[in-house]
Amino acid sequence: MSEKASDSTVMHATPEQIMAVILDLEAYPEWSQEIKRVEVLSRDDEGRPIEAHFEADVRVAQIDYTLRYDHGTPDAVTWTLSQGDVLNQMDGAYVLHAQGDDTLVEYTLEADIAMPLPGFMKKRATKTILDTGLNGLRKRVQSLY
Questions:
Q1: Contact by Cβ (8 Å): 94, 22
Q2: What letter does residue 100 receive in the DSSP assignment?
Q3: What is d(CA 80, CA 117) in angstroms, rounded to the nearest whole number?
Q4: Phi and psi angles of residue 124, each rounded to the nearest 5 degrees, phi first
Q5: What is the model's pLDDT at position 3?
Q6: Counts of helices then strands in the chain (DSSP H, E)
Q7: How far apart are CA 7 and CA 93, in angstroms?
Q8: SS3 state of residue 128
Q9: pLDDT tens across 79-128, in order?
């Protein structure tokens, strides 16, 4: 059974600045403790990642997975799991909303770890990924802008 989580925060940066950090996948190990390595496997004509392989440590497991990205609008990016060793699902999105000099960042995640773990551990792993996705992103954005 998948775990769904979502959260939002306001950052003092433009949507373009924040999206640049989100799409710099190779830099994730610098600001996300869980992500150990990222390899972008393909990019679109604008240089945005289309498919990327991740190696991560989410406390309950060491995981390898590949995500496929969709860039529907300039202020949103979504992803779905295309391959994973212990994941059945890892779908998510960042949606950015300009608010004057700030940006509201919405992050949603739906994950399913294919391991026999108690529900609270799966929930904790999903929450850890969500927290890093917002708090780590905020720290990275603040350090750059």
A1: yes
A2: T
A3: 22
A4: -65, -45
A5: 75
A6: 4, 7
A7: 11
A8: helix
A9: 999 998 888 888 999 999 999 999 999 999 988 777 665 556 556 666 66
60 near 121, Cβ under 8 Å?
yes
Rounded Cα distance between 85 and 132, Å, is: 21
Domains of the chain from N-terminus onward = 3-144 (3.30.530.20)
Cα 132 from Cα 130, distance rounded (Å) = 5
Write the DSSP assignment of 3-48 as a string of letters: EEEEEEEEESS-HHHHHHHHH-GGGHHHH-TTEEEEEEEEE-TTS-
Task: Tell me the C-alpha distance between 118 and 120, whole Å.
Answer: 6
Residue carrying the six token digits 């850890």: 128
Is residue 105 within 8 A of residue 10, CB to CB? The reply is: yes
User: Length of the chain, please?
Assistant: 145
The dihedral sign for the CA sequence 97, 54, 67, 80: negative
* The model's pTM: 0.88
